[in-house]
Amino acid sequence: MSKTSFNLAVVSCDGLPVSGLLTILRNVLDLVHKNPDCPPMLNHPIAIDLGYSWRADKAAFFPSGPSYRQFPDIFKLSQAVPVQFEGYNEFLLRIRNDVARADVNMSAGDAEELRERIEAIAAPYQSYFERWFEENDVDWVIAVNMTLSDGVPATTALHRAAERRWGSGSARPGGVLFWDHDLFRSCSVWEQGQRIYPERPNAFTLLPSQAWHRWAIVSEVLQQETAEYPTPMRAKLVPNVLPSIRRDRSPEFVDLLMRYLKTIDVHVAGDGDDWPMIFLVPVRTIPIKGADVALRVFAAMTAVLRARGVDDFYLLIFGDLDEDAVHGAELRALTAELNLDAHVRFLGGVPTYTFDTPTGPKLDETDLLALCAMSHGGVLFTPKVPDVESVGLGPALAATVGVPCLVSPFEAMRVVYGEELSYIQLESLSPGSIIQGAEQLVDLVLKNRAGNSAWQEAAAKNKTLMSTLFPDTEWKELLLALAAEAGVAGDVVACARDAFF
Which Gene3D superfamilies does the record cross-reference, listed alphabetically (predicted)? Predict the structure, then answer.
């Protein structure tokens, strides 16, 4: 029997309470939820497991997540811990590290022992996923970054539970959409001199391959990599959906922004025309993301800004310092060393949706971008490692709201954005290059504030380019396909198509 809506679930391997991937997921869901003409074909709340219980490397959130987080009502968060014993975290980390080096002189005996350790965790997780699917009447699971080897036992369990529900002769519609933002070779993350991921899939890393699987990746870089993987399934390129930004200056929205700035100890005079310049660093606070580079650029900018008559400016860094406590302490120390304490705010993670708390509002990415644009600020996107970012959305976010962006060198930049985007490129991470980039960024933000026609033209071209590079059509088509394959009535899917296009 056909139905009018279907149930999604989300399994994320990030192990984080907030992340850019959740924000992109929110942008996808908003294609339905914020389109008044679209029938409500996605049920909510959406069951979601953020991987807290198998990401032992995220010590601040392992195994059941932080107790202090407010989570959006659109999601129904699982805090299940299917496995727990003394030394569990070390057990999981050893599996991750051994999988990463499985192709390097691993004996048959060691491989069998590793397989037994994986199985010891995968079996209870399979039971958990099977119950979770049934309890939430799941039609489709979006598996976010579950192809990477951060949680091989959980990925193994997910594949098996999905086969029990949708495969093996089952007539049940639906399945698993593997949605990968990072993959093995292109995610070159190192710890203590060793890669934490293998350079290619191996015998322990399951890949999308079944009739009840779909596979979406977010960039051509990843698509080229997946073509070399040992699976008959070909991944489909589905670009990320950029946020829809509020552009009104209604009294209610201005009041929200002013209350937020007060919450983070930023004084505001006037109704917004005299607001301080707000610069954003939209990344997590882990070493490869380069928040320390952004701090050094901002330190160089402060002298230039003051010399140009601007004394009121702030740098807002999105990430949660608890994610990597050692690096978090290093960032705090660097901020003090650079005499930036009065001008830098660490936001502790940016929520998926804006919400109010007893101490004031917490802004999501879209509203922070609106604040940045209204204050004539800019975006600093400074990856410290050139071969980790598969897309790098910082420049796209800046272009979406028409503010200047400074970018450090990373390999995917030209592949993703081409040659047409106007931005400031650091030539290197040297002190001289940082000073030069800081001067260029200040020059552009002041031109933006003054309404310089050349910059306004460049900003308009940047915005237009984003609609070409990040069209939402692929995600709309994918949502329609998921609905149809989940058994949603044809007239409902047709109505949604009319609303989308």
Answer: Glycogen Phosphorylase B (3.40.50.2000)
Residues 6 or more apart in contact with residue 443 via CB below 8 angstroms? none
Distance (Å, whole) CA 256 – CA 364: 12
For helices 473-485 and 490-500, give the axis angle rounded to 10 degrees. Answer: 170
Question: What is the Cα–Cα distance from 27 to 245, expressed in whole angstroms?
Answer: 11
C-alpha span between 318 and 17 (Å, rounded): 13
Which residues is 488 bridged to in the sheet?
3
Return the residue matching tokens 């293998």. Answer: 198
**Helices 453-469 & 394-401 angle (0-180, nearest 10):** 120
Q: How far apart are the first and last CA of the chain?
A: 27
Q: Are 402 and 452 in contact (CB under 8 A)?
A: no
Query: Which structure tokens are listed for 179?
Result: 């949605």
CB atoms within 10 A of CB 220: 15
Looking up tokens 């309470």 gives 17
Place of tokens 């960032």: 331
| Domains by residue range for the chain, with CATH | 8-241+472-500 (3.40.50), 251-469 (3.40.50.2000)
The C-alpha atoms of residue 397 and residue 419 are separated, in whole angstroms, by: 17
Q: What b/e string do you get for 340-375 counting C-beta neighbours within 10 Å, with b at 16 or more? A: beebbbbbbbbbbbbeeeeeebbbbbbbbbbbbbbb
Spans in the chain with pLDDT lower than 70 = 1, 69, 188, 270-273
C-alpha dist (Å) from residue 392 to 43, 147, 434: 31, 19, 20
pLDDT at 242: 97
What is the DSSP annotation of 178-196?
EEES--TTT---EETTEES
Q: Dihedrals φ, ψ of 492, to 5°? A: -70, -45
HEC readout, 39-87 = CCCECCCEEEECCCCCCCCCCCCCCCCCCCCCCCCCEEECCCCCCCCCC
What global pTM score does this model have?
0.94
Which residue stretches of 198-338 are H helix? Answer: 220-226, 251-263, 291-307, 325-337
pLDDT at 29: 97
Query: DSSP secondary-structure letter at 288?
Result: G
Query: Which of 155, 150, 205 lies closest to 176, judged by CA?
Result: 155
CA 139: distance to chain centroid?
Answer: 24
Distance CA 471, CA 310 (A): 37
| Integer Cα distance of 274 and 500 in angstroms | 39
pLDDT of residue 272: 52
